[in-house]
Input
Amino acid sequence: MTEIRTPRLILRRWHDSDLVPMAEINADPRVMHWVDDGSVRGLDATAEDIERWEEEWDEEGFGLFAVELMASGELAGFTGLSLPEFLPEVMPDVAISWRLGSQFWGQGYASEAAHATLEFALQDRGLDRVISISRIGDEASANVIDKLGMAPEHETVHPVYDVPLQIHSIDLTEFQA
Output
């Protein structure tokens, strides 16, 4: 079982008990504002998401980690690696992403989890390049991307939701783990 510990977080595979807290995160319009078309997701959709994330772990050897606060055991959200199949122009690149509950914003958790995920990508999975895909205007994600040392690569448009996207990348051979 893959687990990463940072000073404040545990990045781990998904447990059945994560469904309700992740569904609560996905039901928050503030959290979902910058995701796809901004629609919130319910319990069933979240269950399908978690099932798909776990399948990606089994098929690819990487996926989205559940992010747990070490001090309290609370589920804060997710971070991890995935194949961005929704955006064929960037395939076969691997993308890093994150989504945390709004009560966990502004505390450095996303940056801490994402940094550990890049270390995992380089050291454990041998990837030499990772991208990020963010909605243009999402300043919170832009701050995390900047802290990771990712460089802007190009802009594009989401093929389904027709929203502007910014692609960033990092060459992990230059990443300071």
Q: What stands out?
A: The chain has a mean pLDDT of 95.
